[in-house]
Amino acid sequence: MTAILAMSDFLRAPTHGTARPRGFKEWQHFVVHGRGGHFLINFSLNNEGANDLLVPRVIVIGHDGTWTGVVERFDDADFDVAANLGDLTIGGNRMTLRPDGYHVIIDLPGSGISGEIDFTSVSRPFVVNNQPLGEGRLSWLFVPRLRATGWLRISGDEHRFDGDLAYHDHNWGRFQWGDDFGWTWGTILPRSSHDPWSMVFLQMTDRKRLRCLSKALYVWRNEEPAGLYRHSAVQTHFRGALAGGADCTLPAPMRMLLDGDVPGVPEVVEVTASGGEDRVRAEFRSQSYARLAKPSEVHLDRSIVLCETNGTVHVSGSIQGEDVDFVGDGVFEFFYG
């Protein structure tokens, strides 16, 4: 399994002189389903505008009663991709790909955020290539289940992780933020580390979220895929709207450009999937969310918004003749273009 991860995951950033960075985007995303809360860490490289520079950012947000965090942008000279394509440095922050997972160092002294976490894979990675995204394309690799060990200091509190469950994905492609697409994505992990099930959900839509372009529910049992359900095999229902607004909007100046509590998040997301004798149902109930926003690259008068949402999940059904029934935690992302 570790050999598969080492061969599959590497940085794709076009940093060499002959490469074409125009329109390129790449990010490494980690979610810790910690015992004391949820924590998201994101390293990103984005080509913006007509220049050929890649703009590096580090995002760290956490939920421990309420969402808080920071989006920090660095100069294009403040990042480095190692020759082996397994080591990304942005300022004092670093992500290193290891044969069995990832080593992450966070150092954002201006925001009082720091940490060091080892993410060890306990499930096989899965790759989706060339997903249409408006006029562009996106590829992504995800590891549905890892164990996080280390610490993270945020908002004056230090959180310790000792084998806490976690999720990772790596995304890369060429597209424009604000093009005609939107998505709902979610990572579902059980509260008990002894429960073998892990799930990842994705639904791609147009920007107005009126037309579904593709959807999938990926289910793992321990380290192996147990069920991959796509398109018509997956049904989704969104119910209600979560009362109240976002805990925070990042970067903070974007609050001036967004209209109050819009966009918000649904109160309940119900996902059902079937295939052969398999039947599975997951119900995600939102609790609170943070908004990440940036100007559209397509429309000068619009912004794109990602709502990072934590909540509880109840999963039930039967897969490959085995009953599935557990309560877990979920982090869902609602992207509005």
TrEMBL record:
It comes from the Bacteria. InterPro entries: AttH-like_dom_sf. This is Hydroxyneurosporene synthase (CrtC).
